[in-house]
Each structure stands twice: as structure tokens, then as C-alpha cells.
Amino acid sequence: MPISQDSIQVWIVRVAGRNIEDWRPVLNQSEWERAMRFRMPADQARFAVTRGILRTLLGRYLRLPTADIEFGANEYGKPTVDGGIKFNVAHSGDFALLAFAKDTDIGVDVERISGDRVVGELARRVLSASEYERFVGLAEVERTPTFFQIWTLKESVLKAIGSGLSIAPECIEVSFYPEEPKLLSCSAKEMVDVNEWTVRSLSIGHGDYAAAIAVRGKTPAIEMKYFTAADERADVR
Asked: For the segment 63-94, what is each residue's pLDDT rounded down to a tens digit?
């Protein structure tokens, strides 16, 4: 399954409703045990299904049997593979996103927009001073969806860098609605050169989710794909 140098492929996966046992043969023993350590069945399924589909798609990109894929990690624990394919994974609620690029650092995030979270309190903690000033100036009905838009943009950058918790979210500042998102500044400049990164909000086709992607350099074409039952059965090409 080819991926070109000038494109990024983002797969949308509806995790809910998939049978966890279908993916057990795709996972190695440690991955299956990790899935089973989650207490809630929904969390077990979310990890196992997402990891199984990640192995499946990487096998097709790299033209390898899924069992032959070996994951490495950067110094902060971000998963990597050899072969020139960069990837990143996120999941929330019923959905997962899996992003793939050729030799380009990427990060992706998805969040279910939930009104039961204390959005105002979270905003004080993770927004920069200027972001928070704009945030509180929004109409109340706009605050929750806008917060999740900003949060996913920030999180996608942090995941693309793979820096773990060494950069606090409030250190990264982005523009947001109604402007086109972009990185404006970062107080951890030694780790994040804002001129190197492009950020974009994504739509997964469900209005109660926010999603975003960060790409090192100029954003190439982004192909959004849905992982269907037919994709599960597809042969490696």
C-alpha cells in the first residue's frame, strides 16, 4: 500500500462495536496483556483494536507481515518503526485516529467534546495568558468546542515532537477560531521552533469530536480515510 512523499494519510476508526477477539491474533503477547490490564472492557477494546489496526496498516505500508513489525521508541517513549514511515495514534470515546507519513514528523489528537468536564478550570491551566484572554471573551456556547479545538492543536504538536511531559501545554500558543490555526509562539523555544511546524484542525465527520494534526514543515495533502470491514480483510499490496 503506497504512501507518497507529499501526502499524509489519516485513518478514522470507529472502535466501538468491534470485536476485541478479532484482533488478538494480530497482537503479540505483551500487547494483549497490556490491553487486559485495563479494568474497563471499553478501554481494553480501545487499546487492542487500535493497536491491531496500527499493526495491520504498518504491515501494508512496509510490506511486512504484522508479526515482523518491531516497535522502537524515542527517548520519551514515543513509538517508532524502521522503514521510513512515521506514524502517530490517538483515541477518544468511540473513535481512533491513525496518521502516517513518509519521513515527516507528525502528531495527531482527537477528543470527544464533553460538556461535563470543567472546561473553564482546564482552560486556566493549559492555555497561555493571551489564549485565555481570548477564550473568556467568547460567547459561553462557543467556549467548550473552542477549548477542545485549541487543546487538540496543542496536543498534536506535543505528540509530533514526542517530548512527553517536558513541555507544558500552556507553553505552546496557537491561533484559533475564527482564524486559520497556526503556531504563534512557544516558551520552550529550544525544543519547538514554531516556524518548523504546521497545525490543522481535522473533521472526523462527527460534530461531537475535535481533532487536529501537526506536521513538521509545510503541510502536504492530507488524505482522510475510513477503516472499514473491507480494509480488515484487504491483502497487502
From this structure: 999 999 999 988 778 899 999 999 999 999 99
pLDDT at 115 exceeding the cut of 90? no
What residue segments make up the domains of the chain, in order of their start? 1-104+220-237, 105-216
Secondary structure class of 80 (helix, strand, coil): strand
Phi and psi angles of residue 223, each rounded to the nearest 5 degrees, phi first? -100, 120
Instruction: Give Cα 123 distance to the centre of its chain.
Output: 20
Q: Note if the pTM is more than 0.90.
A: yes
CA distance 156 to 68: 28
Instruction: Count the helices and strands in the chain (H runs, E runs).
Output: 6, 11
105-216 falls under which CATH superfamily? 4'-phosphopantetheinyl transferase domain (3.90.470.20)
C-beta of residue 71 within 8 angstroms of C-beta of residue 86: no
For residue 229, the surrounding DSSP H or E stretch is helix 229-233
Buried b (16+ CB within 10 A) or exposed e, 133-149: eebeeeeeeebbbbbbb
Q: Is pLDDT above 60 for 233? A: no
Q: What is the rounded CA–CA span in Å between residue 152 and residue 164?
A: 15
171-186 pLDDT tens trace: 999 998 888 899 999 9
Amino acid identity at 2: P
Q: How many CB atoms lie within 10 A of CB 162?
A: 18
DSSP 8-class letter at 23: G
| pLDDT category of residue 235 using cuts at 50, 70 and 90 | very low
Q: Residue 5: helix, strand or coil by DSSP?
A: coil
Alpha-carbon gap, residue 108 to 106, rounded angstroms: 7
